[in-house]
Specification:
This protein is of the alpha+beta class and 107 residues long. Helices cover 45% and strands 20% of the residues. The protein contains three helices and four strands, in the order E-E-E-E-H-H-H. Helix 1 packs across helix 2. It starts with 6 loop residues before the first strand and ends with a helix.
């Protein structure tokens, strides 16, 4: 498995990715995104598909933060979520080749 990247380009911003011990942050689970500081925190104990899922989950939070996406504006909130998620994943993977290669290596 490749080393986890330390940066992720999300739209016009670059987020830092920091693997941390869960004890370093209050109420920290698998992962957390600080959109204002531009940091994605990942529990350093995660591996494989749990890590892949957690980092993509947080990358989507970062994407939504950068692009000001909120849910519930349309009649169908699920459609908002699907539209945002599919475009977000495509953009994140297209703009970050090293991240994409690392992420795929987790499977």
């Amino acid at each position: 498995v490749m080393a986890m990247p330390t940066k992720l380009k999300v739209g016009h911003r670059t987020f830092s990715i920091r693997a941390i011990d869960a004890k370093e942050r209050d109420e920290f689970g698998y992962a957390e995104t600080d959109g204002f500081e531009g940091v994605i925190y990942i529990n350093q104990s995660l591996r494989g598909t749990k890590l892949a899922d957690a980092i993509m989950h947080e990358a989507l939070h970062a994407f939504n933060h950068v692009h000001g996406i909120t849910f519930g504006r349309d009649k169908d909130p699920e459609e908002d979520a699907v539209n945002s998620s599919s475009g977000s994943v495509t953009t994140i993977l297209a703009d970050n080749s090293a991240f994409r290669k690392w992420w795929v290596s987790l499977f």
